[in-house]
Design a protein that fits this description.
heterodimer; A: mainly alpha; MetI-like fold; 3-stranded antiparallel β-sheet; two-stranded antiparallel ribbon; 12 helices; 7 strands; B: mainly alpha; about 70% helix
């Protein structure tokens, strides 16, 4: 609405409107006030901080990153010793966070998807069990679950000497989960490369198959071919290399196991707690996504003669994923953020390492700022990737 | 076609395989070959799993005994809980004064239960709440009527958990609504401030805010001024929860059709009136389910204060478990605590379902 167009008496001009009745001016005053308050408060806190830092003679800046950390970290993906710098210690923490989040996200998606589908099962027993699992996991704090699983590990599991041995080569004790892995051999490297090449070729084959089907109507079984090649070709290579079967089997020497792979109780408890907790939320998201597809869609797909696999692949999933992905993203981010609870059970994730750093250097501001920047970076990259994926899925719509 | 005679109208019963227990089993457990297989496998696993668990929980267990008696049994030692219940619930609250937090909690729960009915939501209820909060604060802090003063550093256990979560929710909700309105505002400065705040808080884990409150915040204050540690954690929880509520409320605001705003404008309502009378009542109603989800996680997240060494109910349980007399009974302690949290959370979510149904005006 334009005020000038309203015929008003000549003595009541626009300037006569008091400024508190003028929405535009009022908004300006509000904004200036808000900026002044926020700016003033920030300046006040900043100057306080400066005086306090000087008074307590705490160093500022990130110079401490170059100094020697002089603390050990129990598990690390890269070489690390107490003589390394804080920067390297923080890198170890970051990698540990990425490790638990990455494995956690994969396992959560699988388990959550499975339970979400199970809740829709026509089998009463399966549906009720899935529902019970979801209610139970959603209503118990994740930190309590972590404590519970960690307690199970270090209290209920025996010492390495009496380790449980459910399968050959797998040991469960209060030092964690220890299992045998194949002895290193060039055959496995070759198998890995071949697998990778098959996947890449399969991807192109699949695209070509789609294009051919769109042009000629003839289907090409690219997926099945790729799956068969991905299994058979590496096996063939393995046989060609002389079929090595030697295993690196964990052995009890003294008080602990040697050989094999050890998954620490801290990592196991953290992973188990995060995966079970988050998958309950993912299950509800998956269930809602599947239920959002009208029955008519599935019936129509069947009516035009699609096989059950095609119904799922071509009709149900593309539509369900569009509903599922946005909330799924925020659950994945939640899992990453909840992995900071590692500090409570002694897994050396980024926050735990930073906390030790803060305690040793006293540079709380830099430490907390580092935590915030790193997690903001994780959050933003994940949401950028997921938004890209989401947009790609959404483009299918006409 | 001939008309059926009365004799022919004799009722035929449905086949026995489609009614009663057998019918239910056929429809729900054995309706296809793979469902039959699933049912059999799951039943086998349950039969293998449940009897030992049942034995551990009920048959081989001790409920009211000393810790020494527990060392000789195979089952659960539930005796840990009655023996330590005072510490788990009230922590370091002085011996002999435990009735005060107990009474305060009872008052809080009674008020919450009383306030459940929507017919009781009147102005007088607000005054009752205000008065009760003062009474509860007095009960906890003491200082009058011959009750010795108990500093907030000694407030621990369940009262601390309930306090952090109650005030966390109650204060975060209006703040979150204001942030959401700010984010939808047409004023660029206000909008930017709100967006930056919401996105920053949502991007970082709660722990970093709690760290900020416990180790960084003292540096912000002028010399000689200190703010209570519990209060700092409380503020961190409020600020954190508010950002999440703001996003949920924004969803509700975006779902409001333009017509609602335009109708309010044409009635000549001011911005405040439009929001208070037209937009918010509808927007907040449609976001009840996600809001309750946020409040539930706020309640569960109060357990994170363990990490900055506040003695909430999880920490007091951990301390009780670290007593050499009772080490090794973590499973029992944590199961008890899980049950406690489960009851609170379940009550909240079922109340939200009821509220949603009551608010549903069907248009």
């Amino acid at each position: 609405m334009n005020q000038n167009e309203i015929p008003i008496s000549p003595n009541l001009e626009a300037s006569a409107v008091p400024f508190w009745r003028d929405a535009g001016k009022r908004a300006l005053v509000f904004q200036i006030l808000a900026i002044l308050i926020v700016g003033g408060a920030s300046y006040y806190l900043y100057s306080n901080t400066q005086t306090n830092l000087e008074r307590q003679s705490i160093a500022t800046g990130f110079g401490f990153l170059e100094k020697e950390a002089s603390f050990e970290i129990a598990e690390s993906l890269i070489n690390y010793s107490a003589a390394d710098t804080y920067a390297r210690a923080l890198l170890v923490g970051t990698l540990n966070t990425l490790k638990v989040s990455f494995i956690g996200i994969i396992l959560t998606t699988l388990l959550g998807g499975l339970i979400g589908i199970a809740k829709l099962s026509s089998n009463w027993l399966i549906a009720k069990l899935a529902g019970g699992f979801i209610e139970l996991m959603q209503n118990i704090p994740v930190l309590l679950q972590l404590f519970f699983w960690y307690a199970i590990f270090y209290e209920s599991f025996p010492s390495p000497r009496q380790a449980l041995n459910p399968f050959t080569g797998v040991f469960l004790c209060n030092r964690g989960l220890i299992f045998a892995i194949p002895e290193a051999h060039s055959a496995y490297v070759a198998m890995g490369w071949i697998f990778l090449v098959v996947l890449i070729v399969g991807w192109f084959l699949n695209r070509w198959g789609y294009r051919r089907q769109e042009l000629t109507g003839q289907a090409f079984p690219a997926l099945r071919l790729t799956a068969a090649a991905a299994i058979l070709l590496p096996l063939f290579a393995w046989a060609l290399y002389g079929a090595p079967t030697a295993m690196n089997i964990p052995e009890l020497r003294g008080f602990n196991f040697q050989g094999g792979i050890t998954v620490s109780p801290e990592f196991s408890a953290l992973l188990l707690g995060l995966v079970l907790y988050t998958s309950a939320f993912v299950a509800e998201i998956v269930r809602a996504g599947i239920q959002s597809i009208g029955r008519g869609q599935i019936e129509a797909a069947k009516a035009i003669g699609l096989r059950p696999g095609q119904v799922l692949h071509l009709v149900v999933l593309p539509q369900a994923l569009r509903v599922i992905i946005p909330p799924l993203t925020s659950q994945m981010l939640n899992l990453t953020k909840n992995s900071t609870l590692a500090i409570a059970i002694g897994y050396a994730d980024f926050v735990a390492v930073t906390n030790t750093t803060i305690n040793q250097t006293g540079q709380a501001i830099e430490g907390v700022a580092l935590i915030m920047v790193v997690y903001l970076f994780f959050s933003l990259t994940t949401s950028v990737f997921m938004n890209w994926y989401n947009k790609r899925m959404a483009l299918v719509e006409r | 076609m001939t008309q059926p005679t009365t004799a022919r109208r004799e009722q035929l019963k449905p086949p026995v395989s489609q009614i009663g227990v057998v019918g239910w089993l056929n429809a729900n457990l054995f309706n296809s070959w793979y469902n039959t297989a699933f049912t059999i496998v799951i039943a086998a696993v349950l039969f293998w799993l449940i009897p030992p668990l049942f034995r551990w929980t009920f048959i081989d267990s001790l409920w009211f005994s000393s810790s020494e008696a527990c060392r000789d049994i195979d089952g659960a030692c539930w005796s840990f809980i009655p023996n330590n219940i005072r510490f788990i619930f009230f922590g370091f609250f002085p011996e002999g004064q435990a009735w005060r937090p107990a009474l305060a909690m009872f008052l809080l729960l009674a008020l919450v239960i009383y306030s459940k009915e929507r017919t009781r939501w009147k102005k007088s209820l607000g005054w009752i709440w205000a008065a009760s909060l003062i009474v509860m604060g007095t009960l906890m802090y003491g200082g009058i009527f011959g009750m010795p003063v108990v500093e907030t550093s000694q407030w621990s256990g369940l009262p601390l958990t309930l306090m952090l979560s109650f005030f966390g929710m109650v204060a975060a909700y209006p703040l979150g609504v204001m942030l959401a309105l700010g984010r939808r505002s047409k004023m660029p400065a206000i909008k930017t401030l709100c967006v930056v705040y919401i996105e920053m808080i949502r991007g970082v884990p709660l722990i970093s805010l709690l760290f900020m409150s416990s180790i960084m915040f003292p540096l912000f204050l002028p010399e000689g001024v200190t703010i209570d540690k519990v209060l700092r954690a409380q503020i961190a929880i409020i600020l954190f929860t508010a950002a999440y509520i703001a996003e949920v409320v924004r969803g509700g605001l975006q779902a409001m059709p333009r017509g609602q705003y335009e109708a309010a404008d044409s009635l000549g309502l001011t911005y405040n009136q439009t929001m208070r009378l037209i937009i918010l009542p509808q927007a907040l109603k449609i976001v009840i389910p996600p809001t309750v989800g946020i409040l539930l996680s706020a309640f569960k997240d109060t357990s994170l204060v363990v990490i900055i060494a506040l003695y909430d109910v999880l920490k007091t349980t951990k301390v009780a478990l670290s007593n050499p007399k009772w080490t090794g009974y973590s499973t029992e302690g944590y199961i008890f605590l899980a049950l406690l949290y489960f009851i609170f959370c379940y009550a909240m979510s079922s109340y939200s379902r009821r509220l949603e149904k009551e608010f549903d005006t069907g248009h």
